[in-house]
Amino acid sequence: MTATVTSPRRTTRPPRGRPRLRTAYRQDMALLNTPAKRRSTLLLVLAAFGVPFFFTDDLLLVFTLGLIASVGAIGLNLVTGYAGQVSLGHAFFLGLGAYTAAVLGGDPEGRLIGYGLPMWVWLPAAGIVAAIAGLIVGPIAVRLRGLYLAIVTLGLVFLGEHVFREARTLTGGPGVGRRGPDLELFGIRFSEGGSLFGLGLSRDQQQFFLALVFLIVFAILGRNIARSGVGRAFSAVRDRDVAAAVIGINLTVYKVMAFAMSSFFAGVAGAMYYAVVGVFEPAAFGLLLSIQYLAMVLIGGVATISGSIMGAMFITALPRIAQEIAHLFPVISTSTVGGGIINVFQFEAILYGLLIIGFLIFEPRGLYGIWMRIRNYWKGWPFSY
Predict the structure, then answer these.
(1) What residue ranges do the domains of the chain occupy?
(2) Given this model, what pLDDT does residue 339 score?
(3) Contacts for 120-126: CB closer than 8 Å, 24+ residues apart
(4) pLDDT digit string, tens, across residues 47-71
């Protein structure tokens, strides 16, 4: 007679009373891996949906543009923060997305080329066109790194400026520009005020809700990329590409993939951003725009999705902050002619530089790092360790 020994059933659930104890790698890599993260994320999303009912339309426009810019910042963080490929050509991919959307969704009877296609066509198409351009640029990243790669991607900005300036039938040319596509989806015209789900909303309120849903979708997509096998391969390439190649990571595939994903995010962000702005011209996609997005990543936090959103919201609101500060100091003029030592636009450029330098020296992890310090302090309070 033999006794049968049965092994205890394996479970991935943490023991009762130990909610933070993880017994499987899948739990540690979950999208929201702690109860606190789940509750805080839910509260943050609910609070965001309540924002349009407490702020004026001019502030809602700033918030809307910040939400859309967050998607472009997440894309830049994928290639620069996670994959370690320094890119200064983000403005080029934003411009490709914006003009692709303007051409596909533009008025077919207007003076410029337009096909009048709906939003569910021109929005993904803007990302796809930008991603194809990223696939072309990506192989260059295999042979270059650091400053050399940054200079090559910087060349894309000047190339894009020339193409956008000369292709007048598509872009309208410098000083003239063209209108962005209409924001209409499922019969809802977001460019006009009206009723949405039984609520009477203004144009800016409707566009805020659209931008918020847009950001939620792409933030989840970006976070899933970062925590997947692809994201871990990006991190390995960033930390030491030679070691990554030794353990079997195909550098060519993953560097090209990083540029393509980043370009896709930039393309859809450019399409949405300038659809909300309304009218844009080739000069909008210059070096300053690339620096602004780089500032979003550095100030918000490198290699974090949350940091990308924080940085994008802050940098988008910076012109408004600069204007408010200018009213307090008479040496700063609110116009471009006379009235002070510097004007508000020069002051804004100075703020960009000071913020980038300050965060790189004193808080390299950006706004996300400040948040982590605050969170860890209250988690350990009243102890200092």
Answers:
(1) 55-285, 308-385
(2) 63
(3) 120/185, 122/181, 122/271, 123/268, 123/271, 123/272, 124/268, 125/100, 125/101, 126/96, 126/97, 126/98, 126/100, 126/101, 126/267, 126/268, 126/270, 126/271
(4) 999 999 888 888 999 999 999 999 9
User: Sign of the CA dihedral 73, 79, 82, 88?
Assistant: negative
In Å, the largest CA–CA distance within the chain is: 102
Lookup: tokens for 117:
């296609």
What percent of the chain has pLDDT above 90?
Answer: 55
Single-letter code of the amino acid located at 184 = E
| Dihedral sign computed on CA atoms, order 273, 210, 324, 358 | negative
Instruction: Give me the mean pLDDT over the 23-33 stretch.
Output: 72
163-191 burial, b for 16+ CB within 10 Å, e for fewer? bbbeeeebbbbeeebbbbbbbbeeebebb
CB 305 within 8 A of CB 226: yes
pLDDT tens track for 226-250: 999 999 999 999 999 889 999 999 9
